[in-house]
Write a structure and sequence with these properties.
Shape: elongated
Largest sheet: 2 strands, antiparallel
Strand content: under 5%
Helix content: 55-70%
Radius of gyration: 24 Å
Oligomer: single chain
Strand order of the largest sheet: 1-2
Number of strands: 2
Length: about 290
């Protein structure tokens, strides 16, 4: 007679060895996240093109329109409006590219990839730093593409100027990416992230002096521009570029810089402000990730 048994086959236990955390593994995590940002950006050619459309519209459409409106009146005749707008437009290109790079965290959360990154045996700070460095690299590349058009708006291709501007763009891109990562760390949907960034980034851009000089402003507007970290970023790039352009005494009022009272904020201090703000935002983003 046939017999049946309910015997359960033996279960094979497979041990999983998790390597201990070390600086080497954290450094490798930073490189992996950084490289992933570059690969994602390289494969998204539509993003490369569309992220340049808004800066080009500001530079050539708005700049040309303002030139026809202001041409031949006072100091405006000594400074090409498009030349004046160029540093602000450079910052704009870096701004939106860096923020959108940071927004990929929200996509990763929605599709479950972020969970896999967070359970990896690496410090969460390494994921944040890799994301910030990767976004800053991508945003700086977009700035380089726009910087190649400098000759079309009367900005010389001076090697020293280009090196200084690229270094400043990298610093600015790191600060803005850290800001985007800090915002995206606790947001659940990409739609909410886009709405939040529009509410925060557009006022910061318009209050940065990218589209108008900072001198002779009303008191309330002066206060808002002074507490805006993007103001120091735009002014740093503008003063660097205009140091290589002869604008004459009348045009110098257009690049008078940021002043605290009667004291002109030096460029080295503006760079320090940007760097400190970036480090603070990275630190806050790490804290947000630890709570995620």
């Amino acid at each position: 007679p046939m017999t049946t048994t309910n015997e359960v086959p033996p279960i094979t236990v497979v041990s999983v060895l998790v390597p201990p955390r070390s600086w080497r593994s954290d450094w490798r995590a930073i490189k992996v996240v950084w490289r992933r940002e570059l690969i994602r950006f390289r494969r998204d050619r539509l993003r490369m093109v569309t992220s340049l459309m808004q800066p080009l519209l500001f530079l050539f459409v708005l700049g040309t329109g303002l030139s026809s409106l202001m041409g031949g009146t006072g100091a405006a005749s000594d400074v090409n409006v498009r030349t004046f707008l160029f540093p602000g437009v450079l910052t704009l290109a870096v701004l939106f590219t860096a923020v959108f790079s940071a927004g990929s965290i929200v996509w990763d959360r929605e599709f479950g990839f972020l969970r896999e990154m967070l359970v990896a045996p690496v410090g969460r700070w390494a994921i944040v730093v890799g994301k910030c460095v990767g976004g800053a690299t991508v945003a700086t590349f977009q700035g380089l593409v726009l910087l190649a058009l400098a000759g079309l708006v009367g900005v010389p291709y001076n090697p020293l100027m280009i090196v200084l501007v690229v270094a400043e763009l990298m610093l600015i891109a790191l600060m803005i990416t850290a800001f985007g990562v800090m915002v995206a760390a606790r947001i659940k949907t990409f739609q909410a992230f886009m709405a939040m960034t529009q509410v925060l980034m557009l006022p910061m851009f318009f209050l940065s002096g990218a589209l108008f000089p900072l001198n002779n402003l009303p008191t309330w507007l002066t206060i808002l521009t002074h507490i805006n970290p993007l103001t120091y970023a735009v002014d740093l790039v503008r003063r660097t570029i205009f140091a290589f352009i002869d604008v004459g005494p009348a045009g110098a009022s257009f690049v008078s810089g940021v002043t605290w009272g009667d004291w002109l904020v030096p460029m080295w201090l503006e760079a320090i402000i940007i760097a400190v703000m970036g480090l603070i935002m990275v630190w806050v983003a790490v804290i947000q990730f630890r709570k995620a």
